[in-house]
Amino acid sequence: xxxxxxxxxxxxxxxxxxxxxxxxxxxxxxxxxxxxxxxxxxxxxxxxxxxxxxxxxxxxxxxxxxxxxxxxxxxxxxxxxxxxxxxxxxxxxxxxxxxxxxxxxxxxxxxxxxxxxxxxxxxxxxxxxxxxxxxxxxxxxxxxxxxxxxxxxxxxxxxxxxxxxxxxxxxxxxxxxxxxxxxxxxxxxxxxxxxxxxxxxxxxxxxxxxxxxxxxxxxxxxxxxxxxxxxxxxxxxxxxxxxxxxxxxxxxxxxxxxxxxxxxxxxxxxxxxxxxxxxxxxxxxxxxxxxxxxxxxxxxxxxxxxxxxxxxxxxxxxxxxxxxxxxxxxxxxxxxxxxxxxxxxxxxxxxxxxxxxxxxxxxxxxxxxxxxxxxxxxxxxxxxxxxxxxxxxxxxxxxxxxxxxxxxxxxxxxxxxxxxxxxxxxxxxxxxxxxxxxxxxxxxxxxxxxxxxxxxxxxxxxxxxxxxxxxxxxxxxxxxxxxxxxxxxxxxxxxxxxxxxxxxxxxxxxxxxxxxxxxxxxxxxxxxxxxxxxxxxxxxxxxxxxxxxxxxxxxxxxxxxxxxxxxxxxxxxxxxxxxxxxxxxxxxxxxxxxxxxxxxxxxxxxxxxxxxxxxxxxxxxxxxxxxxxxxxxxxxxxxxxxxxxxxxxxxxxxxxxxxxxxxxxxxxxxxxxxxxxxxxxxxxxxxxxxxxxxxxxxxxxxxxxxxxxxxxxxxxxxxxxxxxxxxxxxxxxxxxxxxxxxxxxxxxxxxxxxxxxxxxxxxxxxxxxxxxxxxxxxxxxxxxxxxxxxxxxxxxxxxxxxxxxxxxxxxxxxxxxxxxxxxxxxxxxxxxxxxxxxxxxxxxxxxxxxxxxxxxxxxxxxxxxxxxxxxxxxxxxxxxxxxxxxxxxxxxxxxxxxxxxxxxxxxxxxxxxxxxxxxxxxxxxxxxxxxxxxxxxxxxxxxxxxxxxxxxxxxxxxxxxxxxxxxxxxxxxxxxxxxxxxxx
Amino acid sequence: xxxxxxxxxxxxxxxxxxxxxxxxxxxxxxxxxxxxxxxxxxxxxxxxxxxxxxxxxxxxxxxxxxxxxxxxxxxxxxxxxxxxxxxxxxxxxxxxxxxxxxxxxxxxxxxxxxxxxxxxxxxxxxxxxxxxxxxxxxxxxxxxxxxxxxxxxxxxxxxxxxxxxxxxxxxxxxxxxxxxxxxxxxxxxxxxxxxxxxxxxxxxxxxxxxxxxxxxxxxxxxxxxxxxxxxxxxxxxxxxxxxxxxxxxxxxxxxxxxxxxxxxxx
Lengths: 984, 266
Known about the structure:
The complex is a heterodimer.
Chain A: H1 2-14, E1 33-35, E2 41-46, E3 55-60, E4 64-69, E5 75-80, E6 87-93, E7 97-102, E8 107-112, E9 118-123, E10 133-135, E11 141-142, E12 145-152, E13 155-160, E14 166-171, E15 177-183, E16 190-197, E17 201-208, E18 214-221, E19 227-234, E20 237-241, E21 247-252, E22 259-264, H2 265-268, E23 277-279, E24 286-290, E25 295-301, E26 305-312, E27 316-318, E28 322-325, E29 328-337, E30 340-347, E31 350-361, E32 369-378, E33 384-392, E34 397-401, E35 404-409, E36 416-423, H3 440-454, H4 460-473, E37 488-494, E38 498-503, E39 509-514, E40 528-536, E41 548-554, E42 562-569, E43 575-584, E44 587-594, E45 600-605, E46 610-614, H5 618-626, E47 632-637, E48 642-651, E49 661-671, E50 678-684, E51 695-698, E52 702-706, E53 712-718, E54 735-742, E55 748-755, E56 757-766, E57 769-776, E58 781-791, H6 800-805, E59 822-831, E60 835-840, E61 851-856, E62 861-865, H7 879-884, E63 912-917, E64 924-929, E65 933-938, H8 953-983
Antiparallel strand pairs in A: 1-65, 2-3, 3-4, 4-5, 6-7, 7-8, 8-9, 10-12, 11-12, 12-13, 13-14, 15-16, 16-17, 17-18, 19-20, 20-21, 21-22, 23-24, 24-25, 25-26, 27-29, 28-29, 29-30, 30-31, 32-33, 33-34, 34-35, 36-37, 37-38, 38-39, 40-41, 41-42, 42-43, 44-45, 45-46, 46-49, 47-48, 48-49, 50-53, 51-52, ...
Helix pairs in contact in A: 3-4
Chain B: H1 5-32, E1 45-47, H2 59-68, E2 76-77, E3 89-97, E4 120-123, E5 128-131, E6 137-143, E7 146-153, E8 157-158, E9 162-166, E10 173-178, E11 184-185, E12 189-190, E13 194-195, H3 207-212, H4 214-235, H5 238-251, H6 256-259
Parallel strand pairs in B: 3-12
Antiparallel strand pairs in B: 1-3, 2-10, 3-6, 4-5, 4-7, 7-9, 8-13, 9-10, 10-11
């Protein structure tokens, strides 16, 4: 109790309005780390600039365009485009502009190559939706101006490379015309637009590149139709497949005349296996087709004759063509062989002669090669050297040169799906001994330096020494558990199906594992990782058992495809086992029970609403049976606007006798009227949240009891009209309704309507309060509201006489089935920014005050004290309320720049914020992820239980020494004085 | 690492006080900056079919406007051909972001972090994102009529979101206002309301700050007691002084030397 009151005192003591999180500039990187990524590369263009540093410009699936240093793989500059603004093509124009075509071909932008500044932006419209193509012809000039040729939305544009002006445009309005290729033969003033009409007609338009005039239009019909893509084999020949995928059509349109040749695949490949697809490639004279098992390279030898040059069953990746001289084209080919990859560079017209053949050792955890980009350079002996950029299955990007991996980027980390944490191994005697300070002198010298630093007496060299010393001396990157719980492993699951363990100290990758269960297989066509759960967290057996995580994934995009479970050891990254389930996984419920080996029980709900218990052991079953009647859960069907509560009924009654399968029953359902309400957000409390005390002492010695229930659900619904974007509705026809629903009984505890408001709603639930962010259409500003819920049934307990007479109900059990007497308090405030994510700090014991972490639209994370969102704020708080720490009410929430936890950094493409308690009560660990990763430690009420990093021991030592000296001096003086007095 | 609780609380208080002082000063610095308004806004209407050009702000009109009414709430009309509002119309919103040069260069140790190339302009909470041209202009294409919200994200600066009304009834009529202070914009020129300082500034070592801290106050008080009290005692009446001393002796107040182990000898 004494400790508790002491903590309360500290909290009170430290509560001042100054920003709690604040950092000096020289403290950057001390407790935080920031990593920048770009995502899986879709397209790469090498800058051919002779001078300056070599660059490669890439566009990625995370919708990033970036310029990378070819020597080291660092990012020069990077831009993340909007989510709807998907990049269709990139290229380099005039050697100094990066051209991007995005938004389905309707936005064309040009960026300055050296610094990434946008130069111009053009909006391209057209009559109808179509494929889009971006061509940057090198020799097509138009009044000294280089021209870009863009085909998008059924219209061909010629655009000036310098200012983005449209020079001419030509519509292709024919209803059924589907463009397949846009070709600009080098050295001519012609543009060919080829495509299909009505799926059996081949159309060719020849256009004058100077003015967009249509020169020729030819068409030919093919009764067998077309399927899939066409491949360009020369500037005037394309290859397509017929609708059955078994006949190759070689169509040439030399001089505007269409001639064609049909070759059944079975003529080329004896044992043809099912329908084939053309692998798009731009290598002239050669194309590749792929059937289920074989990849066949076919050469076109004039007049539409085809010849098979190679047949392989290996996984293979081909680059686009690279012209190395006037009439020579080279391309790269990568083949897999167990633990190596073989890179071959060939000339387009000479299949058998290899320009280059190298083998590179490849980490198996990177999976297959997905994409290859080739670039050449001239060696000192004037021969050609080649470097290739490869994109792997785990989304990483590697540069190969001279048989070696020059650099690699782990860009899979740009697309994190789920995050969990794991403890590090316990420090064992003899395993890793902490390094003691070398000697006292060194130690003292270091602290003297620090003292100089704090007193601002340090020279720049001293400052640098301090910084490096701090980074080195801190034990933050050790691989063992620490006393304060700052060192942990962040286990992240990426979209590529790879699991990474990041060390919280410095963000390095401890291990990574490409999940075997997430590999494509016969049974599982397109596996997707869904969630991570802590499967086993050993406390009693911490010394001899490793913790493990459960990865839940499923075999396809729809929710009724069978699920896959894999169990991964978090110390070693080994996949312990994996289970292919025969049922789907719609919902995973981690139960608050563990078995004797501390494996957590999980309940998996399938599409037919059967519950399956994991782990499938008899012990788990017996534990589960004991708690059978106490298990409740809910499900949300956002499409239908229904929230349902469920409980277990009995064993499965189906034909399969499985004692781990249970039938469920619906307990209650809340149906929202579809014409007026649409569910946009549902939030519950975090399962592992700790609440320190239920009582809240308010100003006048009064006590309020928080209504703390794990089974509260916050639901926000908006008017169906208002579920669109901002500005699409008027305030009159839009509203937002917030509910607090008990998930055991389905009782609606609170309901509030915000008229004239709309989504998107971001909400966070903690203890007895929920905070949500939405848009107020009337004020045209964002708003944040707080609802706090208090238990009234315990309010009478403050009567001392009742306590004395034992009439209180403090010890009576709480049942959710008894009608709770609750009151709610709420308040709303304006908030400036749009939000992308919202989270709340969590600490080990829940004593420390809370901060909200707001991921703003600018990709920053702002820490906002919960006291700003206190429904008891008034304009003029009384003296008592002020003492309690209530802030006078203002209409908007303050944004204090010093409380941005990301300080001057951006977490580009922010998607989520995760908080994990450290062992030290004052501190919480914050991990924000998007395209970038950011990690820091936060102390919402300051570090009241430990000394700060920059605490000067030297100052303390000097003070003590000075005090001791002073004591001795005064002692001597007083002794002498006393002696004198006695002599007197 | 964990220190004894009592001590940590003291140091805690020590640092909180310093931070409060610093926040105060930075706030004053921010207020001293004035905002200059200069701007241009131009909304050109283009039907979905046949809209192809990038509409550039009419700088002549805007310059004249800016000269006449720099800070008034007014609607800016831009010439646009009138179309019947039967089909789905789409508009372009053009504007400009202006970051006054020199803002932020005055403060020590604070590098200007937000380069123009890293500034993003966001419409309706990220529905559309665009970037700035070298001269600071930006445009959103194919925006339906209605009320929109434009936000500017620039590291190091605080921009107020701007409410932009694109009218369907009067094509090309645009109304813009800062949502933070409800100030109308004659033209869509967005300027930072203030600079954002993400780091605490280390105050140079000074005697005053040390004295102002709780530790300093305590030491000062103790020194005052140690040195001023004897002076007060000296000024006392000798009679009274003797009486007090006698009283003290009779009560046996221990002197410092008698408290220490060495003092016991005499």
